[in-house]
Amino acid sequence: MTQMNMIQALNSAMDVMMARDPGVVLMGEDVGYFGGVFRATEGLQRKYGEHRVLDSPIAEGGIVATAIGMSINGLRPVAEIQFADYIYPAYDQIVSELARIRYRSGGDFCAPVTIRTPCGGGIRGGQTHSQSPEAIFAHVSGLKVVMPSNPYDAKGLLIAAIEEDDPVIFLEPKRLYNGPFDGDPNKPAVGWNSHPKGDVPEGHYRVELGVADIVRPGNKLTIITYGTMVHVCLAAAEKAGVDAEVIDLRSFVPLDIETIVNSVKKTGRCIVAHEATRFGGFGGEILSTIQEECFWHLEAPILRVAGWDTPYPHAFEWEYFPGQARVIAAIKATMEAT
Amino acid sequence: MMRSRLHVPRPPARPGEKPDFSYVQVSPAGAAARPDPNAPLSETEFLSKEMVRVLDDNHRAVGPWNPHLAAADLELGLRNMMLTRAFDDRMHRAQRGGKITFYMKSTGEEAVSVAANMALKPSDMMFPAYRNQGLHISRGLKIVDLMCQLLSNTRDMCKGRQLPVMYHSVESNLFSISGNLATQFPQAVGWAMAAAIKGEDRICATWLGDGSTAEADFHYALLFAQIYKAPVILNVVNNQWAISTFQTFAGGEGRSFASRGPGYGMPGIRVDGNDFLAVHAVTQWAAERARTGAGPTLIELVTYRAAPHSTSDDPSRYRPKDEEKSWPLGDPIDRLKGHLRNLGAWSDEQDKAVEKECEEHVNQAWKEANTYGTLTDGPQLDPAIMFQDVFKEETPSLARQRMQLAQELKERAQK
Question: How sure is the predictor about B415, in pLDDT bands with cuts at 50, 70 and 90?
Fold first, then answer.
């Protein structure tokens, strides 16, 4: 075990996979010589050569399209889109091509491409560097979509994603790169070195896609969340003094319905929390699933905690961000409902 | 006072007007020089303005681009073009008869695919567009297999998931065709980049229409191809029309599509797309560049879409009827026949015999394909197949939906 922050864990995952499989190539803006704007690919071009860690032009559509072509020719590309907010020029290639190649060719071709992209707010990124677009990818059949919330999961999930023969959208909550963040911007930043999930094996291991993690067991309330909000919800549950079970989804597609349903059947109360805008957000899918599977076990309406249905405003980051206060209010409302 | 004025391009002739192809700059056959494939850009730039042509008006092969193909190869090319046309005509009729839902003919554009294929190796990869059936036919895909795809029947390679004409073949190195335009162009570049990364000697070729060059994917493809010197041949099939949209709306007014190539730093060649020999020659030239590490080539194949865009289209609503009869570059099949006749390698008897052979081949295949089912009759695909291949392995939620459908179908059957 080594102490790693999330960037180091991601870097280690790519390093491990590049060493194991000569077909793994990295591409993206600034990822080569410079090592990426968040340093996730630092040192990898030096180690594996500029043919395997490719600096790409600023053309996300071209990055994803050429990654698809490479995968058809037997490589296993890991493409970095510098910010999830920049991914939309590639949306057609992702939705109409990447997601469909296996299906439309009757299983004859497949496109094992991993697209890594930093998402989420909390870094004063304004409306073009803070988005959480998981729902618009999870909605597309043929894509696997995941988001880790800590270094250990980040490395294991990324290795599993690269080893997948299906395309994976790998969303990285950038506010968590350097340390867990409980939603309070006024507290001094903490690193991953004091967090148990900052202990990361140096070699190969997998965190399977489609398996949620119960990060805090409890009996009275289920909080379903992912990404940065995992840490916010943990802190909020602690402050609210509720015997809450907190589930880190980790994976949107495939979705670990069993873990969700078992927990809600046990607690009878549930809130779903995400940073993305509320309307049409992934929370709605969770809620629907719960009411289909657990309706007669529910003791209170399920509430959603989310970003407002506005773009992410630069000046009002902490009014937008669904921090502890918003989570605690939902916890109280859910617990008090009869 | 000076004012700006919006320029809205229009085609030279609309329905009821006299066809006018005076805008098509045609070089005399044999006139364009043939630079070395590895010559610097400045020495190949003229190719984006002139037009490479080999067959002259008397069907003789002239000039430095003559690929000197053996008569047997020319005859094979001709047969594949004739088979493609016979297949197209039969499938168009099948759609009109309600047997298939949709079809797209390649009439008048057969040389674009068949000649290019002949200039490449079977191991080279192709990312076709939807009007490249000549590639599939000349790469030896069975006509019956293509028909099964059109019928979405029990032998459909796409398992009933794709609109007709979206074929593929792993064995024949033909990538799956997308219904979304231009997406294959940068994918082909990625495929070629991978070949270079792996140090293979295989190259890649891809095709799109003049209209599709307006998509960002076209520009990504040229950019990435040139940056990484990918071993790829980028073909723009300029058949003048994108459904009802004339090629000027894709920027073809005043400058050739081939001239986009030098803009990105690669050679662009404008070629007579209805001249089998010229298409073969420029493809070979581009393939040599790709194989020797010189990088990509953009080829504009100047041709004319003699057929409707698809069976859902009626060109008489937007262009003069029989406009193709005035097309200055003639018909690729007639021209190659003329050339073979000149060589004494084609006779009226052969012509009739091969035409009949193609017709019978197609009819025979159609009969067989129908025995594997149609959308409405005969053996049917199990609808549960729709849940396969979304992912490599079925997810639990897909499994649940598959069982739900099975229940639905059971109840439907009981009613």
Answer: confident
**Distance in angstroms (rounded) separating the CA atoms of residues B204 and B188:** 6
Of B220, B195, B214, B216, the residue nearest B205 (C-alpha):
B195
Predicted ipTM beyond 0.90: yes
Residues lower than pLDDT 50 in chain A: none
Closest CA to A334 of A200, A222, A213: A222
Residues B299, B236: contact at Cβ < 8 Å? yes
| A182-211: b (≥16 Cβ within 10 Å) or e | bbeeeeeeeebeebebbebeeeeeebebbe
Query: What's the farthest any 2 CA atoms get from each other in chain A?
Result: 62
Question: What is the C-alpha to C-alpha distance for residues A202 and B126, in angstroms, rounded to an integer?
Answer: 41
Helices A282-294 and A257-267 cross at an angle (nearest 10°) of 60
Confirm whether B309 is a catalytic residue. yes
* Cβ–Cβ contact B392 with A under 8 A: yes
* d(C-alpha B322, C-alpha B335), whole Å: 19
B190 near A CB under 8 A: yes
Whether residue B260 is found in the same domain as residue B393: no
Contact A104 B127 (CB under 8 A): no
Q: What is the pLDDT of residues A91-119, one digit of tens each?
A: 999 999 999 999 999 999 999 999 999 99
Residue type, B56: D
In this prediction, residue A266 carries a pLDDT of 98
Residue A145 belongs to what domain range? 2-200
H or E element: which one contains A118? Answer: strand A114-119
Does B389 touch chain A if contact means CB atoms closer than 8 Å? Answer: yes
In a domain, A217, yes or no: yes
Q: Phi/psi class of residue B260: alpha, beta or left (left: φ > 0; alpha: ψ in -120 to 50)?
A: alpha
Cβ pair B74, B345 in contact under 8 A? yes
Residue B310 CB partners (closer than 8 Å, separation 6+): B102, B103, B104
How does residue B289 score in pLDDT terms, banded at 50, 70 and 90?
very high
Partner-chain contact A255 B217, CB within 8 Å: no
| Neighbouring C-beta atoms of residue A261, cutoff 10 Å | 17
Q: Which residues pair with B207 in a beta bridge?
A: B235
Identify residue B96 by its one-letter amino acid code: R
Q: Is residue A207 part of a domain?
A: no
Residue A308 lies in a domain: yes
Total Cβ atoms within 10 A of residue B15: 12
pLDDT one-digit tens code per residue, A147-203? 999 999 999 999 999 999 999 999 999 999 999 999 999 999 999 999 999 999 999
Q: Do the Cβ atoms of A70 and B193 come within 8 Å?
A: yes
Domain ranges, residue B126: 41-310+323-371
Rounded average pLDDT over B376-400: 96
- As a whole number, the mean pLDDT across chain A is 97
| B367 and B389 together in one domain | no
* Contact call for residues B148 and B85 (beta carbons, < 8 A): no
